[in-house]
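Worked example 3 (structure in, sequence out).
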């Protein structure tokens, strides 16, 4: 029953993905809390060939990405995906957070006024964001230029100090992935450290 419910709910994500692919076309990226798992669902669906032909790139949003295991992060976290830039993949959460204050004003409202308040909020939200769009783009463009200038200088200093090249960073990434894939179980040292912490927790609880 649990898996049947999961498959049933996947239809909403697939319907949304169908719309996104039809609107944005090729070479798009989509951040999703469970983008790693959803990519398998998408590939096995009727949309799979279309997503592959359009070179869709699924991403696990930065906030949730660090809750996934390290092996997953190496392939799905935006930090390791070329072309994501400053994107953290949490756009929807920024939108939803702006509407949180509506809860206190709609808690005891009728269904009609509840819907009306939410609709009016997002109507004005759209207008405000559209009016400030040029400022938003300009500020982010300046931020990107500043980061490129600053981080490029810092990276050059690190490469020179450690005698590294650009190919070394790609090699480190590949080697880490290979190492994690080869692990059948946690290293003994990690197991002992975890066990030690558990014993300390138990001791504290019984004192």
């Amino acid at each position: 029953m649990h898996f049947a419910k999961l498959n049933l709910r996947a239809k909403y994500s697939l319907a949304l993905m169908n719309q996104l692919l039809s609107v944005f076309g090729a070479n798009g990226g989509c951040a999703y809390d469970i983008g790693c798992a959803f990519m398998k669902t998408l590939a096995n669906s009727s949309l799979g060939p279309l997503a592959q032909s359009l070179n869709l790139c699924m991403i696990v949003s930065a906030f949730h990405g660090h809750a996934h295991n390290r092996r997953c992060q190496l392939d799905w976290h935006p930090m390791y995906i070329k072309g994501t830039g400053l994107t953290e993949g949490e756009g929807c959460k920024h939108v939803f957070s702006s509407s949180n204050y509506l809860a206190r004003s709609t808690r005891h409202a009728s269904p009609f006024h509840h819907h009306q308040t939410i609709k009016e909020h997002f109507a004005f939200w759209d207008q405000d964001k559209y009016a400030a769009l040029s400022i938003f783009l300009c500020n982010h463009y300046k931020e990107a230029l500043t980061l490129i200038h600053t981080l490029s200088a810092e990276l050059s200093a690190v490469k020179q100090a450690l005698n590294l090249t650009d190919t070394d960073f790609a090699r480190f990434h590949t080697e880490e992935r290979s190492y994690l894939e080869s692990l059948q179980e946690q290293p003994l040292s990690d197991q002992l450290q975890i066990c030690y912490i558990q014993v300390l927790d138990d001791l504290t609880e019984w004192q």
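Notes: The beta strands are 29-31, 57-59. The longest helix spans residues 133-162.
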